[in-house]
Amino acid sequence: MNFKKIVVSIIAVSTLLISASPALAHVVVKPKEVGVAAFQTFTVGVPVEKDVPTTEVRLVIPDGLNYVTPNVKPGWSIEVTKEGEGEEAVAKEIKWTGGSIPAGQRDEFLFSAQVPAEEATIAWKAYQTYAGGEVVSWDADPKAVEEHEKKNPDSHDDAHAPKPYSMTNVINDLKASATTESKESAMVAGASSNNLPMILSVLAIALSSAALFLKLRKKK
Q1: Which of 28, 41, 46, 156 gives 20 to 30 Å between its CA and that of 137?
Q2: pLDDT digits (tens, 9 = 90+) for 26-62
Q3: Among positive and negative, which fits the CA dihedral 85, 88, 93, 98?
């Protein structure tokens, strides 16, 4: 077999292995990044990986989020579990029930919330219930899941293998604004400094002209 045939064979085998690998999809909350103290609309993407529909989605609300409000979802009932009373009540989880996401399809669930006023990483733990009662828990540390998969390459077929949670980074986007303002102020100050000699020259000419005018007027 010549070199060209060997290369073609390797490509063919690689393609076959890739196509044979199962397509993995995760329950993910987006966006992945948001500014401090921002009011943000979050999207929970829920794919169905089994041959039966998803009938319930439960999302745990991490500490530090305020004003958690789910969007209306036609065909689904929404329950927000809170801790505390009145204005002090804090949302702990959102549960969507009564609807159905067919096998091989996906859907999105929306809610809004105010994120913490300081930099942080929000871990979104979600629990997906299928028709028949099986619950898939998306609540494991992604690093732990990665280590598990390295040690157990075939674990993607294991229903009991850990599933990763998704994360949103709360960043201090005000730093960038402050830096930009500082640069602009420095540019203005620099421009003023550069123009100072010209300003003084114009002022000197104006004073000289005024003095000459007064001198000529006295002579008259």
Answers
A1: 41
A2: 999 999 999 999 999 999 999 999 999 999 999 999 9
A3: positive
